[in-house]
Amino acid sequence: MDWHKFCEIQTRRSFFRSSVGGIGTAAIAHLLATEGRTAEQDRSDPLQPKSPPFKGTAKNVIFLFMEGAPSQLDLFDPKPGLHKWDGQSLPESMTKDLRLAFIKPSAKVMSSPRKFTPAGRCGMELSDFLPHLATCADDICLIRSMFSDAFNHHPGQLLLMSGSIQFGRPSMGSWVTFGLGSESQNLPGFVVLSSGRGTSGGASNFTSGFLPSTYQGVVFRNTGDPVLYLSNPPGVSDASQRANLDFIRNINEERHAATGDVEIASRIASYELAFRMQSAAPELLDFSKEPQSILDMYGVGKQPTHPYAVNCLLARRMVERGVRFVQLMHASWDDHSNLNKNLKKNTDITDQPAAALIRDLKQRGLLDSTLVIWGGEFGRTPMVEVRRPGEEGNEGRDHHPLGFSMWMAGGGVKAGQVIGKTDDIGFNIVEDKVHVHDLQATILRCLGFDHTRLTYRHQGRNFRLTDVEGKVVDKALRS
Questions:
Q1: Is the per-residue pLDDT at 41 higher than 70?
Q2: 354-382 pLDDT, tens per residue?
Q3: How far apart are CA 113 and CA 134, in angstroms?
Q4: DSSP symbols for 84-152
Q5: 200 Cβ partners below 8 Å, 6+ apart?
Q6: 475: which DSSP letter?
Q7: Which of 118, 127, 131 shows the shortest CA–CA distance to 351?
Q8: CATH of 50-476, one of 3.10.450, 3.40.720, 2.60.120, 2.160.20
Q9: Predicted confidence band at 209 (pLDDT cuts at 50, 70, 90)?
Q10: Can you give the pLDDT at residue 19?
Q11: What angle do CA 141, 206, 230 make, to 5 degrees?
């Protein structure tokens, strides 16, 4: 008898009649597995929590993705040496073979008007545009020596989020939920929140790529239905919806048994999750039980912080409820012109909520188990870009992948320190270079993974987030 003929005669009804104990045993087994009281996990749920290969220092990730590349020279990496070169072109010996997106290597240098002052006990120098983050200096690890292989936005975002400038690779959140599952029963394991003007990379920043679609990032809105069409249509009761889903599940289960297609299992899981979300998601968005002091700390209800503040508060509430990976995308920091005006606008929106997130996680005992990451796909040049000559104050900066800044907090990170150093004008890295793949390897290490062994077989070879590179940044981790 061949396999397909065997599957045809194994109906669900015959299974329940012939199996020892019938449906009651199956139900008990499911309940015990949900409570973690069986030897094996419930394999019918692809997001069932999994244990990492070794004990990690973080259980959850919140990635504050600043799309468009914030200027590290005006926020994190003070360069008084730029004043010496202000208005002059750099020597050709420094710019030979330099690839830039829009300006020529001969463009004139622009010093930063920002004032940097030491913050916290550690004395970390931060820009006057980041007064709230300065109060958390002792809780963050600032990396000033990041570099990327991409100098345009979409490739840079693909590399940061998926480890490759090629389309079709799984994003970081998908890899993390694939490796660890999720501790939330009623919310997705990987959630995406956005504010600002959208991102160049779009859905490629949170795609599951060739992984099963269960691990795709789910985009939430911060008003109305969190997910479009989540609510039942008028006249459809919960009981009727449950009956419809049961019927669809039965059909999908029969097809899955016949084919073993993982996408069918993903579809079953997504339908069931959507049903549970219908009651869980509105509660998630209900801030009525949050103390006013917490809402004020984030900047909820106040402009210009409100949209980003809501997302940061939602991120905290999500990790409390077991969501594994929350990705906040704020756009855009792509300041080719009007740098000072636009940078002030974006920091006014994001600085207070991001700092509040760190303080709130810390006071709730969640920062040690939650890894928070802040950064964009690359940085900005020390040279000026002028889009409209003759307009005073419209200067900006071009894309710069050779040396930029990101920071991390919580989740096993050694805080209150600066890693890496760029040269006197912020052009090249001179100490502790950290590639994007190194950052990814370090994030996975915090979660309990060897980045070279978290792999997925596709098209005849094993793929991983860090592609064929990457090394853990040991300086960034607590010993």
A1: no
A2: 999 999 999 999 999 999 999 999 999 99
A3: 18
A4: HHBTSBPPHHHHTT---SSS-TTPBB------EEEETTTTEEEETT-HHHHTTGGGEEEEEEEE-S--S
A5: 67, 68, 153, 154, 157
A6: G
A7: 131
A8: 3.40.720
A9: very high
A10: 46
A11: 120
